[in-house]
């Protein structure tokens, strides 16, 4: 029995290693490449600390007298190696940011027109009530700009299980429609998920199909084709030797009915945001290196995401569609690094990108700049206090909607009631207007003369006056133009209405 185990155990171990090889080796190589910059301090410490000992040994072999202070020199060498190594490590972080910023373009052009959508937190809140009798747990919620829907991926409970259903739902913005579509996974044929165990691990299957690529779980989403769910896993690869950064590597498509896995770099026909949002976020963070090393070190260059006020829960990479219908982008309002809170720029990264390089990132400088989201929230509460904010109503995301215009949505997680649009500083003489959720203008706190808002308000007033005209075409408010008969008839109608109200009939 013992002899048998001596042979069986190694064979089982080898079999497990072979079975895990593609997955484990990918993880090991991926993580080791990240650690390469950290080897610099170790190598320098060892080399500089051992240099005095090597020199002393060589002198002894030559028969020359070894000078004293070898140990002291070794410690000095180790200290110098540590300082140099840390310097190289810090500079490597700067080079990484520079690499991610290489696809950045800073322009003074206005932000392209962007379509408003329901806030992400509203889509997240409305997912669970629409799942019905599903017992699983929500794994991911992603806005699908192609369909103007939110996709919800639900994983089945248990370690050795995959996904249960995919839900694609319309989250109304100014509409009573709540259209949704559910597509169920075949629990036997498609029993894998990205964080599954053993044979239920989708990451292992992806590595078996294509090694040396990995993914971020926040990039994964689902869409339904009829009653067939498809899980989309945007992939990433590593480039560089000493300075290691990431690049897109296509997508993995997992059929929720057949369990078939397809890895492809042709993402043009795949619905949804196939460019990894985690990579878009890393590119945005790389804007810190727009200047030199000193500017990067002292945080004098680049931008941060605006993360106060309404954008505190969701502050970056808003997935928005262009109003011209051409495409969609990850959009982020940006503030200067440091204590400033005003929004001075907006970054855009396409949600879909062909090729294996970084997607282009465009930073649009704003003129005029915005106030901070927190200041905008306080402005809305002050100027439109009759609609904001009571009970569960609050101001949601403040997002760019083209040009220099921002849009904030007002309502509850179950019903978006209004939107407020504005531009520029809250103390400036620019328009801030209250609209219904579907974009119908209600009123403006201030409309600049000649602005589109002022023209629309004038049109609305003229329309109201036309509606107030009586059947004879006489303005109801101009009594001087009434004939005697018309005035007598009006007086009779007013008297009747007053008597009706006094008697309570």
Short description:
This protein is an alpha+beta fold.
- Which runs of at least 5 residues are low in confidence (pLDDT < 50)? none
Q: What percent of the residues sit in helical stretches (DSSP H or I)?
A: 25-40%
- Give the helix tally: 9
**By helix and strand content, what is the structural category?**
alpha+beta
Kindly state the number of beta strands.
19
What overall geometry do the principal axes of the alpha carbons give?
Answer: globular
Proportion of β residues?
25-35%
What is the residue-averaged pLDDT? 82
Q: Biggest β-sheet: count, sense, barrel?
A: 6 strands, mixed
List the helices and strands and how they pair.
Blueprint: H1 2-61, H2 70-100, E1 104-107, H3 120-127, E2 137-144, E3 149-155, E4 163-169, E5 180-184, H4 202-209, E6 221-225, E7 228-239, E8 245-255, E9 261-264, H5 277-285, H6 293-297, E10 303-305, E11 318-321, E12 328-336, E13 343-350, E14 361-370, H7 373-383, E15 394-400, E16 405-412, E17 415-423, E18 432-436, E19 441-446, H8 452-468, H9 484-503
Parallel strand pairs: 1-14
Antiparallel strand pairs: 2-3, 3-4, 4-5, 6-7, 7-8, 8-9, 10-12, 11-12, 12-13, 13-14, 15-16, 16-17, 17-18, 18-19
Helix pairs in contact: 1-2, 1-4
Can you offer a commentary on this structure?
The structure is a single chain. With 505 residues, the protein is α+β, with helices and mostly antiparallel strands. It is built from nine helices and 19 strands. The strands form four sheets. Strands 1, 10, 11, 12, 13 and 14 form a six-stranded mixed β-sheet that branches. A hairpin with a 6-residue loop joins strand 12 and strand 13. Helix 1 crosses helix 2. The chain is globular. The model has no long low-confidence stretch (mean pLDDT 82).
């Amino acid at each position: 029995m013992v002899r048998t185990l001596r042979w069986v155990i190694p064979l089982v171990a080898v079999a497990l290693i072979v079975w895990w090889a593609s997955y484990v080796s990918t993880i090991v190589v991926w993580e080791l490449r990240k650690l390469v910059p950290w080897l610099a301090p170790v190598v320098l410490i060892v080399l500089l600390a051992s240099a005095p000992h090597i020199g002393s040994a060589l002198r002894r072999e030559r028969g020359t007298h070894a000078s004293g202070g070898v140990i002291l020199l070794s410690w000095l060498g180790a200290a110098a190696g540590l300082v140099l190594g840390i310097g190289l490590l810090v500079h490597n972080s700067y080079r990484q940011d520079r690499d991610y910023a290489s696809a950045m373009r800073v322009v003074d052009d206005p932000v392209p027109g962007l379509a408003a959508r329901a806030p992400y937190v509203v889509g997240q809140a409305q997912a669970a009530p629409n799942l019905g009798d599903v017992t699983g747990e929500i794994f991911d919620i992603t806005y699908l700009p192609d369909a103007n829907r939110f996709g919800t991926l639900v994983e089945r409970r248990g370690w050795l299980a995959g996904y249960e259903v995919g839900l694609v739902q319309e989250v109304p913005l100014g509409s009573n429609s709540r259209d949704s579509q559910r597509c169920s996974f075949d629990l036997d044929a498609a029993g894998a998920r990205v964080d599954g165990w053993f044979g239920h691990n989708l990451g292992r299957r992806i590595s078996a199909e294509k090694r040396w690529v990995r993914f971020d779980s926040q990039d994964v989403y689902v869409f339904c084709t009829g009653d067939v769910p498809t899980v989309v896993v945007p992939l990433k690869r590593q480039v560089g030797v000493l300075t290691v950064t990431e690049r897109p590597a296509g997508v993995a498509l997992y059929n929720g009915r057949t369990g078939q896995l397809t890895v492809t770099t042709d993402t043009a026909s795949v619905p949804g945001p196939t460019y990894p949002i985690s990579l878009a976020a890393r590119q945005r963070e790389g804007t810190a290196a727009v200047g030199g090393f000193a500017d990067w070190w002292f945080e004098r260059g680049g931008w941060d995401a605006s993360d106060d006020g309404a954008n505190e829960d969701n502050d970056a990479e808003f997935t928005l569609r262009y109003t011209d219908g051409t495409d969609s982008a990850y959009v982020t309002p940006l503030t200067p690094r440091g204590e400033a809170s005003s929004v001075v720029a907006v970054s855009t990264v396409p949600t879909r990108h062909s090729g294996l390089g970084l997607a282009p990132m465009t930073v649009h400088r704003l003129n005029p700049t915005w106030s901070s989201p927190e200041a905008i929230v306080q402005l809305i509460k002050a100027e439109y206090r009759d609609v904001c904010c009571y009970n569960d109503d609050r101001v949601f995301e403040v997002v760019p909607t083209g040009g220099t215009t921002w849009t904030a949505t007002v309502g509850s997680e179950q019903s978006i009631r209004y939107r407020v649009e504005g531009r520029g500083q809250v103390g400036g003489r620019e328009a801030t207007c209250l609209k219904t959720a579907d974009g119908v203008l209600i009123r403006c706190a201030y409309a600049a003369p000649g602005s589109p808002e002022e023209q629309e308000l004038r049109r609305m007033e003229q329309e109201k006056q036309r509606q107030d005209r009586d059947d004879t075409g006489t303005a109801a408010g101009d009594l001087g133009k009434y004939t005697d008969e018309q005035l007598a008839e009006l007086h009779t109608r007013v008297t009747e209405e007053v008597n009706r109200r006094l008697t309570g009939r």
